[in-house]
Write a structure and sequence with these properties.
Elements (H helix, E strand, L loop, with lengths): L4 E5 L12 H5 L10 H20 L1 H12 L3 H17 L1 H11 L1 H19 L5 H25 L1 H4 L4 H30 L1 H20 L9 H5 L16 H17 L1 H12 L4 H4 L2 H19 L7 H18 L6 H30 L4 H30 L3 H18 L18 H6 L6 E4 L6 E4 L15 H11 L13 E5 L1
Parallel strand pairs: 1-3
Antiparallel strand pairs: 1-4, 2-3
GO cellular component, one term: membrane
GO molecular function, one term: transmembrane transporter activity
InterPro entries: MFS (IPR011701), MFS_dom (IPR020846), MFS_trans_sf (IPR036259), Proton-linked_MCT (IPR050327)
């Protein structure tokens, strides 16, 4: 008897589909999908809380470094931008090490590097030594900590993976919000050196959290599959795709100005006469807006009829417009509006990075594509904030710095428009909808159609309204793959639900 593939809506039920899960038949579960995995989920959330909380609030530390070290704003900006860049630049290396040595070893070693970097930076006033300690050591250590949080959940979760992703990524948002007032309180009372020593205690908590990771027990099927050949993270074949090249160029232009508000917004506010405790809250407002926007846009973009690539272009453009208009905000209320506006579109942008990359290169080349993408954009990420600081030093205000940041984002938006010109256009084989059959028999909703090889008949219903007409509006199955591989998109549980299901009977 030949098999047929049945496509049906999620709310419909098919009585012929066996209800017994595959793992019950084989007697071996795919993964725990809970249990001790929730402990690992909590540990990963703590690590993201600390790692992103420290990185995203460097702008508050930046203002104190300028005063205490008596250095140019450009020299101080290099400290945070190099640390930011190191976290992304070393991401592919950290991911590859996780595959070979395990997430527990990599994250633990990363915690040690981070602790040594923060501690040694607290005993010097030489900015060049701080480059080596805080920027390089802490940046590299944070990369070794951040990558495992994205990879370890995929080992322990399947059905509950979106929920676990949401919990972990919520840690980064909460960390950014909570660390801002904490930074200002400690820096204003104890100074930046004591601040770094207190952060060493946070780094020690990261080491303890990393020790909670443990390899997947051998009784699970996923533990056996981990020994198979894994995809390459340094696969250069993705550079043969012109669409991917333009995608990298667009992202590089965007990241010239992307981290400017994270580092310079508090100092910009203080230059306008806003008190330090209020200026330190601006990055928190941006983070809150970004976190909420990921959930809202996740709900909206769950509709496959929405062209997600056009939404991405709109987010690029609106972040550019917000940064360009930022100099017009001369009081605290205006800066809050800018922070909330930039954060809202940033949330959607972050939500679509992995999905758009998967749509451009295909799901099979997602890991090497992301490795190459993050490796390249780390360069403009490093140079962007110091460039803004140099403009501030020359002009005496941040007005031109935000203009340049917005202009770079606008150029990235225009380059993004070239990607569809180089995308392959593939037409799906037509599937009969069975309208004639429905007219004859109201109870029948299926029609047989032959596939390309003529062997398997396909039983299908008319679900054309579920499909987007754009190559860039991904089906939910591909979105689910991207999210499961990365685990770094807040509100991802809104993207992974399939409106259609496919079952062999």
């Amino acid at each position: 008897m030949r098999k047929a593939r049945v496509f049906f809506k999620s709310e419909e039920k098919t009585p012929n589909v066996p209800s017994t899960p595959t793992n019950e038949v084989t007697g071996e579960a795919e993964c725990p999908d809970g249990g001790y995995g929730w402990v690992i989920c909590l540990a990963a959330a703590v690590i993201q809380f600390i790692t992103l909380g420290i990185h995203n609030n460097f702008g508050i530390l930046y203002t104190y470094l300028i005063k205490d070290l008596q250095v140019d704003p450009t020299e101080a900006a290099w400290i945070g931008s190099i640390a930011f860049g190191m976290m992304f630049l070393c991401g592919p290396i950290a991911s590859s090490l996780c595959q070979r040595c395990g997430c527990r070893v990599v994250a633990s070693v990363g915690g040690v590097f981070g602790l040594l970097g923060l501690l040694s930076a607290s005993f010097t006033s030489n900015v060049y030594v701080i480059y080596l300690t805080y920027s390089v050591l802490w940046g590299f250590g944070s990369s070794l900590n951040y990558a495992p949080t994205m990879l370890v959940l995929g080992e322990y979760f399947d059905k509950h993976l979106p929920l676990a992703n949401g919990i972990v990524t919520a840690g980064s948002g909460v960390g950014t919000m909570a660390m801002g007032p904490f930074y200002h309180f400690v820096l204003s009372n104890l100074g930046w050196k004591m601040m770094l020593r207190i952060l060493c205690a946070f780094a020690f908590v990261m080491i303890l959290s990393a020790l909670l990771y443990r390899p997947l027990p051998a009784r699970y099927k996923r533990a056996h599959s981990q020994h198979k050949e894994r995809p390459k993270f340094f696969d250069p074949s993705v550079w043969k795709m012109k669409s991917f090249v333009f995608w990298v160029v667009s992202m590089s232009l965007l990241f010239v100005g992307y981290f400017v508000p994270f580092i310079h917004l508090p100092n910009h506010a203080e230059n306008l006469g806003i008190p330090g405790h209020k200026a330190s809250l601006l990055v928190g407002y941006l983070s809150i807006s970004s976190t909420v926007a990921r959930v809202i846009f996740g709900l909206v973009l769950d509709d496959p009829r929405i062209n997600r690539f056009y939404v991405l272009q709109s987010c690029f453009l609106m972040m550019a417009v917000a940064s360009t208009l930022c100099p017009l905000a001369l009081d605290y209320t205006g800066l809050i509006i800018y922070a909330i506006s930039f954060g809202a579109f940033d949330g959607c942008f972050v939500l679509l990075i992995a999905i758009t990359t998967s749509d451009i290169v295909g799901c099979g080349k997602l890991p090497p594509a992301l490795g190459n993408l993050y490796g390249v954009i780390s360069i403009p990420m490093i140079f962007g904030p110091p460039l803004a600081a140099l403009i501030f030093k020359i002009s005496g205000s941040y007005q031109n710095a935000f203009f340049v940041a917005g202009g770079a984002m606008v150029c990235g938006t225009f380059t993004l428009s070239l990607i569809p010109l180089f995308m392959p256009h593939k037409k799906s084989p037509p599937v009969k909808t069975g309208r004639e059959l429905l007219d004859k028999d109201d109870t029948s909703k299926e029609v047989l159609d032959e596939n390309s090889d003529g062997e398997k008949p396909i039983i299908a219903v008319d679900t054309s309204f579920l499909f987007d007409t754009s190559n860039f509006a991904m089906r939910n199955s591909l979105s689910c793959l991207a999210l499961n591989r990365l685990g770094d998109l807040c509100g991802s549980h809104y993207l992974v639900g399939n409106p259609d299901r496919e079952t062999d009977v």
